[in-house]
């Protein structure tokens, strides 16, 4: 289970969100939508401790930590239970596709190299890049790079994978292959939190859609309900705007 | 005006070349020590280690802000008066020490810039899979920073080779010191110093050629 309780994050005097609660069952897939600047990225980054929350409790599987006095060890443990997929892929430029995927298994999990490479090749197979094992990120298309980014997250065997707008930096031609891979993960019931405005994807894949505005969770529910019958006026306004560009 | 005495120059060549190893050894020793010190300084600066960062900044500011010759005199003639155990410091050691401290200050700044230049999102990606700061530095940041910094560091090595000639002011008979002595006994100053200039020049040209080849290789890295 993944739980955020009372998570609060400030940048200086600016409070991004205050006292946010969110819970996920294992295998649940949620999509977070909302206007930009609302704190969606910051929320994901707090779950992975790329940003340190100012207050609140984070629970991921058997680990639970209090943001007010989290130790370095707890933070590392939390990061091993969560994986992140970045909008701009953020692949290690000095590592091949295979090494990008294996890096964590070797360095963080301490797997022997041969074993890590065997698993790495399985993952490359699953992400459809078996022939790109020795390619460096610079020679891959955006879509291929993002699939490696997802492969790197899969290799972490994390309890939850956090996706921060994984397709929004991609040229349109590469979006589908990335979404297809994410759907495949969803079918395997990989727990995921996805920040995305791909409404079609949300409708097909999400168990629950969460609408955030101004640092608050305004409303949430199954995609069919939320998309067809939004309760809050802000949700309605946002959906009208987004669906006009990006029909579900 | 006298005609260039080529025979004298050719005769001088083997004599001077026998001092080249000492020059190169001083530069190599200074380079290795300066690289180690520069990496430490750069990491202290990048991580903004409390206390140490201020010290590193002071160190870098001093050694970049004063002439190398002044620093060498300070170490060789000045310091032993204050720190009496240094009385036995010889010219070669003082030169290597001076080159190390002086060039490490410059090199620290290029290494720091190269580290900072590594795309910040890769740092986040490494942290996000649970790497420690040390693992992140060793496996992701430093390999990429090295690639960026290498051409500049090669330039400093070339500068350092030329700077070893200052050792003669500390009484070391290296390439420049030997030339000075030969010239003083033959009075053929122009020939002697022209010869030594040519030797330095050729050494530097060889290194520049190596540097260009290395740069080509480095530019191709990570592209395949
Ligand atoms: N590192 C930061 N320093 C200061 N302010 C930040 C930082 N990161 C995000 N913010 C601010 O936090 C708010 C939420 O940003 P973000 O989480 O990126 O929103 P979203 O992902 O929903 O677009 C914005 O007002 C943004 O300017
Ligand atoms: Mg965002």
From TrEMBL, chain A:
Lineage: superkingdom: Bacteria
Domain ABC transporter: 2-239
InterPro entries reported in the protein's UniProt record: AAA+_ATPase (IPR003593), ABC_ATPase_HisP-typ (IPR030679), ABC_transporter-like_ATP-bd (IPR003439), ABC_transporter-like_CS (IPR017871), MetN_ABC_transporter-like (IPR050086), P-loop_NTPase (IPR027417)
Record bears the keyword Metal-binding: no
Coiled coil location: none
Membrane topology, as annotated: Peripheral membrane protein
MF-aspect GO terms: ABC-type amino acid transporter activity; ATP binding; ATP hydrolysis activity
GO cellular component: plasma membrane
Keywords associated with the record: ATP-binding, Nucleotide-binding, Transport
SUPFAM superfamilies reported in the protein's UniProt record: P-loop containing nucleoside triphosphate hydrolases
Gene3D superfamilies for the chain: P-loop containing nucleotide triphosphate hydrolases (3.40.50.300)
Cited Pfam families: ABC_tran
Localization per Swiss-Prot or TrEMBL: Cell inner membrane
Family classification: Belongs to the ABC transporter superfamily.
Name used for this protein in its record: Amino acid ABC transporter ATP-binding protein (PAAT family)
Organism: Chromohalobacter marismortui
From TrEMBL, chain B:
Protein's name according to its UniProt entry: ABC transporter permease
PROSITE patterns to which the protein is assigned, alphabetical: ABC_TM1 (PS50928)
Family: Belongs to the binding-protein-dependent transport system permease family. HisMQ subfamily.
Intracellular or extracellular location(s): Cell inner membrane; Cell membrane
Keywords in alphabetical order: Amino-acid transport, Cell membrane, Membrane, Transmembrane, Transmembrane helix, Transport
Pfam families on file: BPD_transp_1
Listed GO MF terms: L-cystine transmembrane transporter activity
